[in-house]
Amino acid sequence: MDSKNRRDFLKKGAFFGTALLATSALGAIPAGCSGAADKENNNSGNGKGSGKPKTRTLGSGAHSMEVSALGLGCMGMSYHRSFIPDKQAMITLIRRAADLGVNLFDTAEAYGPFTNQELVGEAIEPIRKDILIATKFGFKEGKPEIGLDSRPESIRKAVEHALKSLRTDYIDLLYQHRIDPNVPIEDVAGTVKDLIAEGKVKHFGMSERDFSQTENGIELIRKAHAVQPVTALQSEYSTMTRQPEKEVLNLCEELGIGFVPYSPLSRGLISGYINERTKYNPTNDNRISLPRYTPEIIIANWPIIDILKEFGDHRGLTVAQVALAWLLAQKPFIVPVPGTTKLAHLQENMWSADYEFTADELKVLTDDLSAVEIRGERYTTGYPTTK
Ligand SMILES: NC(=O)c1ccc[n+]([C@@H]2O[C@H](COP(=O)([O-])OP(=O)(O)OC[C@H]3O[C@@H](n4cnc5c(N)ncnc54)[C@H](OP(=O)(O)O)[C@@H]3O)[C@@H](O)[C@H]2O)c1
Hints:
The chain is of the alpha/beta class. It has 14 helices and nine strands. The chain has a single domain, classed as NADP-dependent oxidoreductase domain (TIM Barrel). The strands form two sheets. It has a seven-stranded parallel β-sheet, covered by helices on one side. Strands 1-2 form a two-stranded antiparallel sheet. It binds NADP nicotinamide-adenine-dinucleotide phosphate. NADP nicotinamide-adenine-dinucleotide phosphate binds at residues 73-76, 81, 106, 207, 234, 262-268, 271, 273, 320, 337-342, 345, 348-349, 386.
């Protein structure tokens, strides 16, 4: 398609898209509406215009979880995103997210360490029964900088600590944060299986930077799944980081495992909210050490934002909404966990679940995104890290 026809094509959806968003916006601010009530209202029809995330299923059969189409990444509320907002404001944000229908909240022992779990625990205490908590273990003393540790006794210790911090007696989804080459994966999965039998954990997940690049990553998922069925894999996936498309999404489809994209907005980059002039706090921001966040590389990768913007401008969608809607459109078992510290961004991100692409516009958008050669490695070398 030449560029004029492509532009005309992109504009065709304008009226439909704008109308859809307007309906969503009207329906999306139900002050005081409870998470439980949302669940009842949530599944009628296709969810268009409901203003609340549709639900999706992670995992299969007895090991499945019914979750909102988008979860909320809580890491940046206290860790790695430069500023640490007022704690009470973040507690209010988490509860507001639940009011608006988000039921999956993502944290980890390593975020802090421990402080992020504590924040989430305080926030969810009064709404515990209406929401699902995902957390992660896998580092010595919860600190990525001192090494991996998925020994069974360490997993148990991390879980006991997490239960206290999270003010709960069960964890809905427990991920191994990074594969530990020193501990057989069967022992990891077996320990989680025992914790599930004891009622302390409900579901098992695995998280990696990129399972295809991790030594024997795909094989280890299969081995773990044979011991304790995996409900979700979590890895970076966005319009700028598309590695899971190589192998991992097919594996999820084959084994009936859900997929949770982390950093779905590429740590704020894809929204256009950070740019080459952004200054990071060196004591609390991993982006300062990641090659994709240098000023030159940010500018070199800006065509991704231009494409998302052009698509969204004609449909009443923001750049972040197009990026998240595109992820949701890839597979029905994908549940991104964008992080935010702002109610306005939270609502904006949730509304992305209302947008439905036609097959043609999804193809054109995907082709355009694929044509951009992404510059800059995701990570500097070296493990372990939660980055
Ligand atoms: N398993 C793992 O190894 C791993 C690694 C990294 C992250 N995670 C999980 O994934 C979650 C999200 O990842 P992330 O925080 O790295 O990246 P992200 O979700 O891609 O981006 C978060 C950043 O985007 C900004 N943002 C969010 N919505 C926006 C919007 N609508 N418009 C403009 N800016 C927006 C946020 O700023 P504001 O606060 O200003 O909105 C924040 O700085 C984390 O909270 C964590 O739970 C897991």
